[in-house]
Every structure is written in C-alpha cells, then in structure tokens.
C-alpha cells in the first residue's frame, strides 16, 4: 500500500538585491503554498549569509529552512515553482527518513 504522506525538508535561498519586502513576500508565498498542499511543521529564517560561491553575480543570499509533511507528488510541484520564480537563487527539497 502506498504511503499517503511523507516528511520533507526544504531550503530556499533568495536574492537579497530586491530588498527585505521582496524577501518577505517570497517567504510568505512559499510557506502558503506548502500549507495549501500539506502540513508546514517548522520555518527557520536563517537570514542573510555569504554564499560559498557567486550565483548570478550575487555573493550573499537570504536562507530559509522549512520542514513539512505532504503527499509524494507535491515536492515536484514545489520544485517547479522554485524554478519559475524570480528571486530564488537556489533551492533543495529532501525526503526525511522516518
């Protein structure tokens, strides 16, 4: 029998050059999307940090870490949204072991 829900972790790195309001809007957008399709467990805003290497000529990014529970199809949709949203430098979604 297939599992109905899985536990996931995601990290999002946002571009800082658009300002604090744009970062706040992106955090709200993605947390609302996760809540719509699953259960958002934790959100940790790590804030501005230096990147290990430049991405799109940026040396600093705003990091947000979240854990959530959703059906197995949702992470693909979340990843698609990360890729088509301006202001997202990098993202990663990982399935947690139970």
Q: How are the secondary structure elements laid out?
A:
Layout: E1 6-15, H1 20-37, E2 38-55, E3 58-70, H2 74-84, E4 88-95
Antiparallel strand pairs: 1-3, 1-4, 2-3
Biggest sheet record:
4 strands, antiparallel
- Give the assembly state of these chains: single chain
What is the strand tally? 4
The helix count comes to 2
Q: Helix fraction?
A: 25-40%
Q: Termini separation (Å)?
A: 17 Å
What tags apply to this protein structure?
98 residues; four-stranded antiparallel β-sheet; 2 helices; 4 strands; elongated
Please, could you describe this protein's structure?
It is a single chain. The protein contains 2 helices and 4 strands. The chain has about 100 residues and is α+β, with helices and mostly antiparallel strands. The protein is elongated and about 40 Å long. The chain starts with 5 loop residues before the first strand and ends with a strand.
């Amino acid at each position: 029998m297939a599992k109905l829900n899985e536990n996931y972790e995601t990290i999002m790195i946002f571009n800082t050059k658009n300002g604090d309001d744009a970062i706040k809007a992106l955090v709200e957008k993605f947390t609302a999307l996760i809540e719509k399709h699953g259960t958002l467990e934790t959100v940790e805003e790590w804030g501005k940090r230096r990147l290990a290497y430049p991405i799109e000529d940026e040396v600093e990014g705003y990091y947000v870490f979240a854990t959530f529970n959703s059906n197995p199809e949702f992470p693909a949709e979340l990843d698609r949204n990360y890729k088509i949203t301006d202001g997202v430098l990098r993202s990663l979604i990982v399935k947690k072991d139970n």
